[in-house]
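Good morning N.,

You mentioned wanting to compare the apo and holo forms, so I went ahead and generated the holo version with 6-O-phosphono-beta-D-glucopyranose. This is what I fed in:
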Amino acid sequence: SGSFSFDLVIFGATGDLSLRKLVPALYHRDVAGQLNDDARLFAVARGAMSDADYREMAAAALREHVAADDFDAARADRFLQRFRYLTLDAQKSDDYQSLKSALDGGDERIVVFYLAMAPRFFGPICTQLARAGLNSAEARVVLEKPIGQDLASARAINEAVAAAFPENRVFRIDHYLGKETVQNLMALRFANALFEPIWHRGVVDHVQVTVAERIGVEGRADYYDHAGALRDMIQNHLLQLLCLVAMEPPNEFAADAVRDEKLKVLEALRPITDREVGDKTVRGQYARGSVEGAAAASYLDELGHSSNTETFVVVKAEVETWRWAGVPFYLRTGKRLPVRHSEIVVQFRPVPHLIFPAAARDVVPNRLVIRLQPDEGIALHMMSKVPGPGGMRLRTAPLNLSFAEAFRGRQPDAYERLLMDVVRGNPMLFMRSDEVEAAWRWAEPILAAWTGQDDAPKPYNAGSWGPSAAIGLIERDGRNWHEDM
Ligand code: BG6
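and this is what came out, ligand included:
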């Protein structure tokens, strides 16, 4: 921990992400004592607004997004006093001069520019910051995902940003990397002697990564309709999870050592060709249905016009390395599914030889289930003898680790950890430019094949597990989705 003196400038401070995630995260870090008295927060957006107006807006965000138990009115008040509001037009050089004079902290001071904006602004803002001389040695820039729409636009952004800030001061957020359970994947694999020796094609049959959401597109239809689930979730969050499961042990727990290993995984992803896309991917879009007993609108009803954007995807990914040859990674994500539930399932192979003839049919292979959210924990499904004198009957039962039981206290939100890592200057849990580009290099042909083949997303009822083709895809391989959620 420790506490820090710094200035944080939030571009897009009146937007959804800032109010829902950044302001509450900063409040929690302030309460934890990590912000020195002189730490300052600058809220920047286009519209005119007084400091008092912005503080009121941020106060409302805290009341909405901070749990009642963690909310302290007096502390919130002191925290809000750190905010100043500045009107800025991202295209206007003069406005950056005003920002510069407001900052006035000298070159030694840590300044974080957080771009909570659409990616088309990343390049232009960084260029302007550099022109105004705001890219001092202690300045950092934070970019929200998505980085571009495809490989070419991601490259263009990375180049424009690189002209203003060196790579080690560019923090590309993938907030999944800030989740406690995601970081715990590295503890599981590299702080236990048990798993690494069995973590390969000899023992592992396949891996499933599921990120299921119950919510629909909410107020973000404009953004979402141009993105879709592959760009919004698979290209970043699910691929990052795949990397942490599949990567080789890094030589040390350091930013580039870890990111080098993740990059190798991304580069080893087998390209999905035009011809294979029908077998290896499924895209869906939610139709009307019911979620938790209430009628739920279709994606198109929410959007108000027709659209071919997918809200659900399954991809069968393969990592072409000695460790993982022939071991599929089934990636699945969607909106308006029955539950909010994210997990990684490592499915092991069957025992090589069965000595229990009568009970043979009951022996199921081991499964390691890593629950990312909610109810964070790890379950190892093992065969056990059913107690009783009736002979050798076998059944599977889990060995359970619940983080809430093992570790008391509040689970900090991903953004809290990530924001402080930016201040500390530690980019380990952020995507390097080459990772982003490698991920696009794999994702782009899938998008192109869908478009080229006029592959309309298959409808699924809101509140269901996606189109039946999603089940067909894995069952064709003689496997099934882990269901016990
Ligand atoms: C964001 C996506 O990156 O992640 C959203 O843009 C999605 O569409 C969200 O809802 C999911 O994050 P979490 O932390 O709620 O799992």
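The longest strand covers residues 204-212.

Happy to go through it together on a call whenever suits you.

Best,
F.
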